[in-house]
Amino acid sequence: MAAAQDDGATGAVMDIDDAPAATVTEKRAKHPLEPLDGAEIAAAAAILTRIYAASEPLRFERLEIKEPAKDVVARWRPGVALDREVRFVVFRPGRIGVIQGVLSLDQGKIIEATELPEARPMIMLEEFLEIEQVVKSDPAFIAACKRRGIEDMELVCVDPWSAGNFGVPGEEGRRLSHTFAWVRNGEFDNFYAHPIEGLNAVVDVDTLEMLRLDDYYEGKEPLPIPRAESNYEAQFFKDFKPAGKPLDIVQPEGASFTVDGTRLGWLGWDVRVGFNSREGLILHDIGYTENGRRRPICWRASLTEMVVPYGSPQHAHHRKNVFDIGEYGLGKLANSLKLGCDCLGAIHYMDAWVNGIDGTPVRIENAICIHEEDFGIGWKHWDFRTERTEIRRQRRLVVSSISTVGNYEYASYWYLYQTGMIEFEMKATGIVNTVACKPGEPGKHGVEVAPGVVGQIHQHLFCARLDMVVDGPANTVVECNAKAPPIGPENPMGNVFFEEQTVLATESAAKRRFDPSTMRYWKVVNPSVTNAVGKPTGYKLEPTHTVTPFTDPEGPSGSRAGFIYNHLWVTPFAEDERYPAGEFVNHSAPGLGLPAWTAADRAIENTDIVLWHVFGLHHPVRPEDFPVQNCVTCGFKLLPTGFFDQNPIIDLEPGRNKASCCV
Ligand code: NI
């Protein structure tokens, strides 16, 4: 199996008119949902440069395939020429505002474009180090560091946090970073063990000026920087705990999945793997085939937003409320994965292409990992009368990608199971954001993870966008609540409970929170397709990791993250409703995205619907999370509920693992 992407024209800015014929032919053979490759990113950048960069320089926030509508994709046949359209967001260096639009690669022209003078692009990867350099070379910052005993500015690290929208005078109408600082003891020392507390710079990312330095210890003795080392790199360890004897995943005949371009097939499942710079990994057109009949389940599944609010009122820590997807982008921050470290067993990697700030295509090698895993027993029964045992093991297909956003790693895992279940798991690892305190006095908003080093309480709130197509696009969402009537005529023995089902018919009715007192869940059914017992076929969304948000919805951070206040939202499909906190989240105004769209209270019954599921991690930090945090996980499950007529692996071929042995 070869890598799915072609070589592209890395580094080249190529005019579409000059593109070699072979490239165009190959492009036309692509499936309409395939992500842009390097040549296409270069060609799109060339068109935009030709049109917009004649008189003023241009920068590129996003270039991504404009995914055609469901019916267009359904009608498409391999080999048929279909125009490749590109969604773009470009901006001008030195000022806010973006140009958002769509261009045609085949026609070499802009199809539509809108200037949004108030919108701010994300903070781009290339800008991270520029922001740091601006702060570190500022005389006031250098003086403030000196006051804290720091002589070598090379060792100072300044993280470029997004600034939010706090109405601070002088910050209006700009694209800003509000920074936090740390210092290393030496070249590879973990700087997060040494926070410089109460020293925050505000940098205009467009003009690269430091607007302001907030030194909360100005005129008084600064809080000492904790200097004890707390490292995680192997080079700092002399003695290691034993890792155990070799534990190898052996697949002598290879893996059971097939890869055709970006199409993935596995034991009845098929799915198209997508990727863009903002969401990272995307699963398109997930379907399951049984007895020669392919049944669609989910048209598009991705993580579309996440926000990480921190709970401390001290100094400037209220500004930590970062939207890691909307303000930075998981795709452009995706890692190149390493065999035997990130991924174990018979692995197939896919590369991903994103654009650099200058429009240059950037290939992220091995951005997506595909493999299968044993998942224990699927089912078992021992008949105690006949003393016969029947058992089947099960496995799952794993499609994953890992992104590093500053101090944290977000590892996204999509699982397809032989049982028909689809699961998303987010594994969060990396280094907790640290703050200094007087040793022994962390205060009530955090936990001391090392003497004088605090990890503040915070949450990671994720939103998955699930464009469901259970047995076709016309779906309905039903809420299920368990009910127990009081002891009385309906419940004379007090044992009675049952499930009550309620159709969620409108967007306002479908703004729902999880309720553990009723074991609430939601199912997506197709009212027009019935199973063997005459009920609509369906999939249930099992909310396994809902989180209660504590950020006030009226505050400057909560009002920009309205999506977090419901665990479920349902909207009728609309092409441009893609991001639950809005398309442009950096410095966004309150109320954008789901709260604004659902104000129309549209009908959502028996139509093409999108589910938005909010879940996450509530993170009171533990000392064990430092100096690097073991993976903690959250996610959700989509379980077939009357989708199959019976257990879909009842007829799974029996067998036993021959490599297993007794020791
Ligand atoms: Ni955390």
Defining traits:
663 residues, mainly beta, Nuclear Transport Factor 2, Chain: A, Beta-galactosidase, Chain A, domain 5, five-stranded antiparallel sheet, globular, disordered N terminus, binds nickel (II) ion
Plain-language structure description:
With 663 residues, this protein is mainly beta. It is built from seven helices and 31 strands. The protein has helices spanning 21-28, 38-52, 70-75, 125-136, 139-147, 324-328, 594-598; strands spanning 59-65, 85-91, 98-104, 109-116, 156-162, 176-183, 195-196, 199-204, 209-215, 257-260, 263-266, 269-276, 280-290, 293-309, 321-323, 348-355, 361-383, 388-405, 408-417, 422-430, 434-436, 446-450, 453-456, 458-468, 474-483, 498-504, 521-530, 536-542, 568-572, 607-619, 629-640. The protein has a 19-stranded antiparallel beta sheet that branches. Strands 5, 6, 7, 8 and 9 form a five-stranded antiparallel beta sheet that branches. It has a four-stranded antiparallel beta sheet with strand order 1-2-3-4, covered by helices on one side. A hairpin with a 2-residue loop joins β11 (263-266) and β12 (269-276). Residues 1-28 have low confidence and may be disordered. Residues 428, 432, 458, 460, 617, 619 line the site of nickel (II) ion (NI).
